[in-house]
Every structure is written in C-alpha cells, then in structure tokens.
C-alpha cells in the first residue's frame, strides 16, 4: 500500500479491538505470504520452529525494553483476554496467604468502573472478596482517595483497574500499598492503557491486559508477573492458566496465539521508532489535552470525570442535547471519523485515542465537533 492510501484511511476511535498503526498493517500485508524468505506465513509456522522463536523472543525483548520491566518479572503471552484473567488471577493468587491447597483467602478489590466491578464479581468464586473502595455512588467519575481505602490485613492481593475503558477513569499514579499499610502485592488490569505511559514496577506485583486495545489484535493476553508470585495456584487452576507452568515453558505450554504475538511485536518495534514510551506518553498527553480542553470550552459537549482522573486513552462525552446524537454520529462517519458511539451502559459518545491515533486524528475530531456545534446552534 502506498503512502497516499495509508494517509487516506479514516480515523478509527474504536475502544477495542482498536486501531493498529497503518505502518504495522502494511508491513504485515507485505509479509503475509512469505515471512522473511521462509516461504511461510507467520500463521503457518510451528510455534517451536526457529522462525517463530525469533519472532517471539524479539517481541519479549522489545516489550521488556519499552516498559522497563525489571529482571525479576516474567512476561507471559497467554489467551483468554482480560475477562479470563478475572478468574486466572484469583486461581493463581487467592491462596497466597491461606496456603497452597487451602482454598482462597481474602482479596481486596478497588472498584472504579465496569471493568473492576466485573473483576471483583468473578473473583468471588475463588475466595473472600472485600471491596476496599468503590466509586459507584459517584457514578464512577473519580478514583476514590487511596487514603480512605479499607485494606485488609493479610490480603492475598489488592486488585485495581488502572484505566477504566468504559467510564474513562484513569489512575495517573499507582498507589503505594506499603505506605497505605498493606503488604499485599498490587494486581493491575492495564488492558486499555498498557504501553501508553511508563509503569512504576516498584508498586506492582502483576499487570495484565488484553492486547486488542493498545498492543495489537485480539487473542493475545499479556501478563507481567513478579517471580515470587509464581507457584501459589489453587489445585483447581487449569495447567494452561497456571502462571508458573506458563513461565517455566516460556509461554509454550500450549500453542500461544502466534499471529497476534507477531503483530504485537511489530507494534512494539513501531513504538520504539516513535521514540519509546516516554515520547509516546508525551504525545498521548498532548492528544488528551487537545480533546478535553475543547470539550470543557464548548457549550454542547460535556465530560463528567474529575479532572485528575480523566483517561488519556478513552474520552467519554455527551451532547447536552441527546436528540442530536444520531446526527452527530452520521456526520462524523461522513467526515472519516469512525466508531465514536459510547458504550451501551453509559450512552453518549466515546473517543478512544490509543497510541495508534495521531494528534492529527484528534485535531480532525475537534474540528468536526466544533463545526457540528456551530452548524446546529
Ligand atoms: C476490554 C477490557 C477487558 C476485557 O477484555 P476481553 O479481552 O474482552 O476479555 C478487561 N478490562 C479492561 C480494562 C478492558 O478494557
């Protein structure tokens, strides 16, 4: 595909599966029938052959470098997505304090939106879930102040979702659990902002996420886990979901999602070419500021999330006159701005502006929103 065709693609604001850099899609297309002279598509290779081995190891090394993952953390490429991790995390960690073979212990959950709410609900099958704090009474418009969290003594872990994709609520700093009086490891669902910013690993025990928001295609689930958290799985934990088993087999206990790993690997190389995570974060900050500043200054649009907790990746917004929603979406589509409809549980609009969305795309959205507001006034 030539450069003109690439730049003529519409801007895609999908929350997930989401836009992938056009350069990556273009390279994958060029390599589809014959990867590096192997005579095979990546889809057709043995996961144990030397060709895929090089793809896998390169992806692991690039991700470790990009996210500055310390040596005492393992990177696992799994399947099942964020929702499967809602079960896989407690299957592996709920028994950490109660002792292996004893069944699940106490797990603390911080609920800040739909995704962490689902996580807490699923974990109840595996032990005693305690909700340490919830933003529900405030309509999930802010992260409850960590100073007020009710953390349990001897919890097996504390779980939070660091970017709520549906409600547009993001932690701009992860809590320091030690300072809050908890010795438990922090487990983070970072599905929808992984690789959008650096991670403070000194505050994290385990981070997981589905790839289809910010890392690549659906089918790949990323788990980054501190080594001391391996080996605590409940006896009922399926072998293919046992972090220790997966780690010991370098994510090859079962066939990993090879093509999704390949595409994610191309995305990691693209991120390095962009200047790495710090440069990408600076761009994400600029993109989010452009959109939020416009919304805050307009008469027609509104975002209800507390300013300190606004997501840089997912920007939900409402038209003050909801009767104009359909006209807004139809006009956006005609202007080459796709998938702006909000999640059905929240309504309104949502612009997801992940790493692959250029500043120009956000500018095009703002220009459209301004024109729409004027012409309809
Ligand atoms: C999309 C998403 C999920 C669910 O991912 P699946 O791959 O559909 O299981 C979980 N958590 C967050 C924060 C998400 O954005």
From TrEMBL:
Its EC number is 2.6.1.52. Binds 1 pyridoxal phosphate per subunit. The keyword Repeat does not apply. InterPro entries: Aminotrans_V_dom, Aminotrans_V_PyrdxlP_BS, Pser_aminoTfrase, PyrdxlP-dep_Trfase, PyrdxlP-dep_Trfase_major, PyrdxlP-dep_Trfase_small. One of its GO terms (molecular function) is pyridoxal phosphate binding. GO terms for cellular component: cytoplasm. Pfam families: Aminotran_5. One of its GO terms (biological process) is L-serine biosynthetic process. Pyridoxal 5'-phosphate binds at residues 115, 165, 189, 212, 254-255. Residues 11-365 form the Aminotransferase class V domain. PROSITE patterns: AA_TRANSFER_CLASS_5. The keyword Membrane does not apply. Keywords: Amino-acid biosynthesis, Aminotransferase, Cytoplasm, Pyridoxal phosphate, Pyridoxine biosynthesis, Serine biosynthesis, Transferase. Pathway: Cofactor biosynthesis; pyridoxine 5'-phosphate biosynthesis; pyridoxine 5'-phosphate from D-erythrose 4-phosphate: step 3/5; Amino-acid biosynthesis; L-serine biosynthesis; L-serine from 3-phospho-D-glycerate: step 2/3. It catalyses: 4-(phosphooxy)-L-threonine + 2-oxoglutarate = (R)-3-hydroxy-2-oxo-4-phosphooxybutanoate + L-glutamate; O-phospho-L-serine + 2-oxoglutarate = 3-phosphooxypyruvate + L-glutamate. It is an enzyme of class 2 (transferase). The modification N6-(pyridoxal phosphate)lysine is found at residue 213. L-glutamate binds at residue 48. Gene3D superfamilies: Aspartate Aminotransferase, domain 1, Type I PLP-dependent aspartate aminotransferase-like (Major domain). Belongs to the class-V pyridoxal-phosphate-dependent aminotransferase family. SerC subfamily. Catalyzes the reversible conversion of 3-phosphohydroxypyruvate to phosphoserine and of 3-hydroxy-2-oxo-4-phosphonooxybutanoate to phosphohydroxythreonine. Homodimer. This is Phosphoserine aminotransferase. It comes from Hylemonella gracilis ATCC 19624. The lineage of its organism: Bacteria, Pseudomonadati, Pseudomonadota, Betaproteobacteria, Burkholderiales. The gene is serC.
